[in-house]
Design goal:
Length: 183
């Protein structure tokens, strides 16, 4: 029993020191809650079974830092009728950041994949769409220009109400936005 307690204490100690190292290195993911709207359903191309330009505009307003995210998705729709799962094949995104009401910079990139799931209501009609989209930064402006921006990847997760197009979700980055800046 004493050996088990010692192993648990050792494991907790190792986990705590690893977490402390991550905090000091700034490697913790930054999670940003967002609300907004789906601005365009996209254009369907029947020859390729693709939707192009499914677009969203979302904001996160805080006292010291605000974020404005725009996302445009392309997704495959092999059997659109009755299908509830779609593969995201591409797209683009941009994130504009203001700190203390002053423009800090823009981070932008490509959509590198993801999924869209349609959840139906009791009547079998689409109730909402749930998305998980992979983002890869390609460059940036302002404080995000130069080195570091292209090493940021993230995940955009959102739920869009089928009736109102209202969208809520979050974006999280593998590295915090502070790490991407040139100090």
């Amino acid at each position: 029993m004493t050996k088990i307690a010692a192993m648990i204490i050792l494991a907790i100690g190792l986990l705590t020191s690893a977490a402390a190292q991550n905090i000091s290195n700034g490697d913790l993911a930054q999670n940003i809650p967002l609300t907004g709207i789906e601005t365009a359903k996209g254009t369907y191309e029947p020859m390729s079974n693709m939707f192009y330009g499914n677009s969203f505009v979302l904001n996160s307003l805080a006292e010291s830092e605000t974020h404005h995210l725009t996302v445009s998705l392309d997704y495959l729709c092999e059997q659109c009728e009755g299908n509830s799962h779609f593969s995201v094949t591409g797209g683009s995104w941009s994130l504009v950041v203001f700190r203390n009401n002053v423009y800090a910079g823009t981070l932008y990139g490509k959509v590198s994949g993801g999924t869209i799931d349609v959840v139906t209501n009791r009547n079998g009609e689409p109730g909402f769409r749930q998305m998980q989209i992979n983002l890869q930064a390609t460059s940036g402006l302002g404080r995000f220009a130069g080195r570091g921006s292209a090493n940021i990847s993230g995940v955009y997760e959102a739920i869009t109400d089928a009736g109102s197009n209202q969208t809520t979700g979050n974006i999280s980055f593998t590295r915090g936005l502070q790490d991407a800046e040139i100090k």
